């Protein structure tokens, strides 16, 4: 579009630039503001006197002697043991991603290669499952988990998240495998491989771009989940997001809302890094479903 | 592919979905048809020097034994569905007969918890979905006209609101619009009212939740539209220029038709996601002003006494709404498939 783009009238160009600047402020400023504010005391971050206190840290200097303070982080990570939640989140994400991808690649590969009518129905059922809010399932889990003493443990949450992840993983990987030419595995089978051998020796080596993209989204689902993990994990096994939510209930009364601010910044940082490294994959993953229609 | 091979390939994945999605749905339905046992009450006779009196007390042992024997509770049929917390048939009928006008009736209707949640969920979905499409499209056009070297960083920052955990993202916004936060102060200054507080006002809270909704999902619409803009047929565009089409006509007759299928796709995904609106209500502690269906389930499950049956009934109603919402899409997909 570059040749046409150059012919843009000035007014339109100015408008486009203004709009972009406006959007950038809306999109990025809240994060920068909170990052900066997380090194202040509550009196500055929520300033009754003057909003500029949050920038210069007037109260922070008065209370701690410096314009920036790590008290919020100390309170969250050491006093409220946020490190434990971080560790739990790491475990949950690691296992959810590995298991969903293992199940998803096997299933997605089969769905992409079979031409039977039941593959259509399986995908439609998966679409319906994808549309249901996960929290509607929780009242089905709880009585059973209580009965069998499964409630509150990390492995339970992992399995549940893997299952909730499956519909999306299957859809994404099926459409990805459809783009790998069938001739590839079929010629391997002509040469005497079984279906599984063909999958292992021919498909696995070429499937990584799609698997990485799908894995990113599985990771985001596990990392961002609140509805399920808040309900089926006990207090000591809490992951980061429910832990932040519990900060709100308990610490706002004690005036320790800065713990929550520090925890929120800590939980955002990994996502920041993730987008930085995988921007291309995230974009291609989001558009994969759409461009095919 | 042979049926048997296919079966073994999809087996682990299908098993996971069967055990943790399909069975729980059945379990939720069964749960919603039962209610917890009431406490067993026994009458004890207390005899003292002044005669005997009868008093009632709760037999904790018997209650526990009964609940352990039948953990599901007792059969209640559809009563949970029709009680005050859900479809509230009695209250609706009463409001219908006594209401003086339609607005009066609707006013009473949305004071009932289920209808209140339903009303907010539907309004949220109906307002946020089109705004997301428009906003996403605008960003896509603007980014597309920016210099190539700038596009990478622009996309990076645009992705942030979508990728960041919904609970965390909404908290960040909430702290800023707090009466003592920067945006809150700005609003007070703009409105000329130093006591203005988003937390205290229902319309402002609704507006804030929807602003969050658009902020969170516009990047998704942006990405899809942006990818669509890259694949607009350049020859058609050039031809349109040669034929003397104005800028607006080119957008109207070349670009928009190309993006139409993408719009259906985004709208579908957005409908599903907006219908489950939940985290911002928790973050904004907005329950006094706005509740959603998902929040109602969460509230039933998380309270002091877990109201499983009530949560299950709301869950079933939510799933039915989703199914209703999806029917047109499913019918279309089926027609496409049958035609092949």
Automatic annotation (TrEMBL), chain A:
Transmembrane among keywords: yes
Coiled coil: none
Gene3D superfamilies registered for this protein in UniProt: MetI-like (1.10.3720.10)
Protein's membrane topology: Multi-pass membrane protein
Pfam families reported in the protein's UniProt record: BPD_transp_1 (PF00528)
Keyword Membrane in record: yes
UniProt keywords, alphabetically: Cell membrane, Membrane, Transmembrane, Transmembrane helix, Transport
Residues annotated as domain ABC transmembrane type-1: 86-276
Subcellular localization: Cell membrane
GO BP annotations, alphabetical order: transmembrane transport
GO cellular component, one term: plasma membrane
Transmembrane segments: 12-36, 87-111, 118-142, 154-177, 198-223, 257-278
InterPro entries: BP-dep_ABC_trans_perm, MetI-like, MetI-like_sf
Alphabetized PROSITE patterns for the sequence: ABC_TM1
Stated family: Belongs to the binding-protein-dependent transport system permease family.
Record-given protein name: Carbohydrate ABC transporter membrane protein 2, CUT1 family
Organism, as annotated: Pseudorhodobacter antarcticus
TrEMBL record, chain B:
A Pfam family the protein falls into: BPD_transp_1
Principal location: membrane
Membrane-related topology note: Multi-pass membrane protein
Gene Ontology CC, one term: plasma membrane
Keywords attached to this entry: Cell membrane, Membrane, Transmembrane, Transmembrane helix, Transport
Any one of the GO BP annotations: transmembrane transport
Top-level taxon: Bacteria
Transmembrane domains' residue ranges: 7-30, 117-142, 154-177, 204-227, 253-272, 308-331
Domain ABC transmembrane type-1: 118-330
Subcellular localization(s) per the UniProt record: Cell membrane
Assigned protein family: Belongs to the binding-protein-dependent transport system permease family.
Name by which UniProt lists this protein: Carbohydrate ABC transporter membrane protein 1, CUT1 family
Source organism phylogeny: Bacteria, Pseudomonadati, Pseudomonadota, Alphaproteobacteria, Rhodobacterales
């Amino acid at each position: 579009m570059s040749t046409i783009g150059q012919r843009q009238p000035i007014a339109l160009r100015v408008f486009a630039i203004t709009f972009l600047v406006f959007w950038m402020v809306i999109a990025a400023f809240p994060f920068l503001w909170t990052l900066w504010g997380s090194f202040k005391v509550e009196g500055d971050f929520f300033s009754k006197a003057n909003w500029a206190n949050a920038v210069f840290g007037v109260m922070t200097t008065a209370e701690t002697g410096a314009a920036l303070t790590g008290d919020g982080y100390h309170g969250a990570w050491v006093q409220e043991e946020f490190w434990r939640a971080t560790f739990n989140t790491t475990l949950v994400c690691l296992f959810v991603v590995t298991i969903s991808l293992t199940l998803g690649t096997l299933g997605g590969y089969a769905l992409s290669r079979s031409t039977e009518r039941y593959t259509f129905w399986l995908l439609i059922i998966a679409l319906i499952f994808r549309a249901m809010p996960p929290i509607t399932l929780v009242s089905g889990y709880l009585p059973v988990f209580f009965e069998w003493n499964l409630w509150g443990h990390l492995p339970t949450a992992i399995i549940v998240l893997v299952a909730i992840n499956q519909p999306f993983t299957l859809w994404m990987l099926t459409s990805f495998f459809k783009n790998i030419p069938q001739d590839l595995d079929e010629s391997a089978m002509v040469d005497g491989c079984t279906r599984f051998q063909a999958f292992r020796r021919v498909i696995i080596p070429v499937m990584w771009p799609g698997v990485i993209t799908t894995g990113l989204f599985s990771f985001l689902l596990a990392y961002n989940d609140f509805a399920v993990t808040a309900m089926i994990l006990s207090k000591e096994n809490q992951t980061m997001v429910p832990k932040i939510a519990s900060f709100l209930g308990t610490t706002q009364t004690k005036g320790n809302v800065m713990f929550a601010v520090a925890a929120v910044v800590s939980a955002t940082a990994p996502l920041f890094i993730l987008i930085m490294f995988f921007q291309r994959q995230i974009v291609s993953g989001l558009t994969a479903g759409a461009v095919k229609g | 592919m042979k049926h048997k091979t296919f079966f073994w390939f999809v087996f682990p994945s299908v098993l996971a979905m069967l055990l943790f999605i399909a069975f729980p749905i059945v379990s939720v339905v069964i749960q919603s048809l039962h209610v917890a046992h009431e406490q067993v009450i026994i009458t004890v006779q207390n005899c003292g020097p002044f005669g005997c009196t009868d008093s009632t007390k709760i037999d904790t042992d018997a209650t526990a034994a009964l609940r352990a024997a039948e953990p599901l509770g007792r059969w209640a049929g559809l009563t949970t569905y029709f009680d005050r917390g859900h479809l509230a048939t009695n209250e609706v009928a009463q409001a219908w007969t006594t209401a003086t006008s339609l607005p009066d009736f609707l006013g009473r209707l949305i004071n009932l918890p289920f209808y209140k949640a339903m009303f907010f969920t539907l309004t949220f979905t109906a307002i946020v979905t089109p705004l997301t499409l428009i906003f996403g499209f605008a960003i896509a056009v603007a980014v597309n006209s920016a210099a190539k070297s700038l596009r990478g960083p622009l996309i990076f920052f645009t992705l942030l609101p979508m990728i960041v955990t919904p609970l965390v993202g909404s908290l960040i916004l909430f702290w800023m619009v707090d009466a003592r936060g920067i945006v809150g102060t700005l609003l007070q200054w703009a409105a000329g009212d130093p006591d203005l507080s988003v937390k205290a006002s229902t319309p402002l809270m609704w507006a804030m939740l929807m602003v969050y909704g658009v902020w969170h999902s516009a990047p998704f619409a942006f990405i899809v539209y942006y990818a669509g803009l890259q694949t607009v047929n350049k020859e058609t565009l050039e031809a349109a220029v040669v034929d003397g089409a104005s800028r607006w006509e080119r957008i109207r007759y070349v670009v928009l038709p190309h993006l139409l299928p993408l719009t259906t796709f985004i709208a579908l995904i957005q409908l599903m996601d907006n219908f489950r609106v939940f985290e911002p209500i928790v973050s904004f502690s907005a329950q006094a002003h706005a509740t959603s269906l998902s929040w109602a389930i969460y509230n039933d499950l998380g309270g002091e006494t877990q109201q499983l049956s009530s949560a299950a009934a709301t869950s079933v109603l939510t799933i039915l709404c989703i199914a209703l919402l999806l029917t047109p899409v499913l019918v279309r997909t089926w027609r496409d498939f049958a035609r092949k």
